[in-house]
Batch of 2 targets.
Target 1
Amino acid sequence: MNGQLLLCGALWIGTASLGICKQNQSKTGDIDYTGGSATSTNSALDVSSSAHVSVYVFDGSARFLTADLVNAEALVAKIFGKVGIQVTWADDASAANMRLRIWESSTVQGTRVTSDALGFRLSINEAVVLSDAMLKIATKWKVDPALCLGLTMAHEMGHLLLQSETHSVSGVMKARWLRPDFAAAERGALTFSSQEGRTMRDGILRLLGTQGAARGSLAVQAIGTSRQ
């Protein structure tokens, strides 16, 4: 593909895919791709409102170094922080608004997911990423795994919050990342657009509303059951 990195709504990318690891996570990483604090925002952007989303990462692969995940999560937090969205990483799936599952490519063989997929959505708030394929991409393009991982996590989370399979002409939601895009990411300059930020903040409110209604329904059911 002549140096091009292809991402789509279902996260296709040449002949490889994505992976994350969260076992034995430390609090410090080796490389800073954030351009600053993971919780800071870009003051140059006009962010009229802020939002918060918690993400739980279920690691069914354990292929990445702990430091890679630490750096990737810091990058994700920085990217979303620039559009007024605070991302935190939950230790309990029940306390999270979104979930990322790390699977091996072999777990999706025989399904509609193709061999060149980076990942795919399972539901309105859950996505799968494929670890072994991500390592292949990092090796093929000579890209640091943490950088590629963080960008792809942000891209997939973007699809969940935007509730759209469409792409932008530039930035995190671009369909094809080129070498200059990775260089921009290293400088902390690969971002969501301000419009994408507004849409995602609205998406978080919608997601929280849906989850709140579901919890309320479960509570009512539990009360009804206890009275029977």
Target 2
Amino acid sequence: MVEPKGPQNLGAVARLCENFGIEDWVIVRPRLDLTDPANLEQAEKFATGKSKRKLATLQVVDDLRAATEDCEISIAFCGRKTGKKSPTQVKIGDLTRAVLAQKSGKAALVFGSERYGLSVNDVSLCSRTVCLSTEADFPSMNLGHSIAAVLSRFHQDATDSLHLASKSSVAVVGPGESAVSQADYRAMLDHGKKTLLRLGYTKAGNPDRLLATFRQVFDRAQLRANEVRAFRSVFARIGHQEFPEGKGNVRPSSEATGHEEFPEGKGNVRPSSEAIAREEFPRSGKGIRAL
């Protein structure tokens, strides 16, 4: 939960966590004093029973990055459609099946404040977004109600999938592969941004707009750790090239891109075998595996 301000909602969510078996609950930048006895007393009234123990174990952090860095996937729940720079938007049914099929790693369900929801920046730190289905003329939901709807759906899908788990032949993380953490995924995106800046490939001087397009592709692909390392290896290789400085849409010279001229036009253009042969690929450095 990001920037909650009502003790009643904290108590209600504590009860929901107990209802649906949620053990890991994190508060980001709370807008209320969690050490104030009056706030805790109010929250406990809405928690009731053994769910009060959740209030004693909740974690508090100042940054959403810190809250999700050990998660394989983070899902932002929004009351409205998000912009082009936001992560891939998916339906909750498709998302629950994907999360339950992971077989490894953690998933973070991210909710915003009671009044404003999640900021654009907080949404951008997540790997998926979900806009809950409501009537078009009244999409705004109470925070506690939206969390209840989401946790109930996840719990139901998890219950339904239990008897299929041992028979499933689908493994999102295959042999020799490992899930990628959000920290490693964001590091790859940051590496890609620096590479775009170095290349001069920006739109109106803003690399984030072009990077958002690539991110949509990466999000749909659900990259694994070895694939992230492969992309970073490519970025590192590009980093050894010399490119002209400049702003806007700049096309590197033929000397900087393997001495091969690629014609403008339609269709797929494949570099010649001679151009590929001229490239020398360095051995992997620390934390980067070369292709």
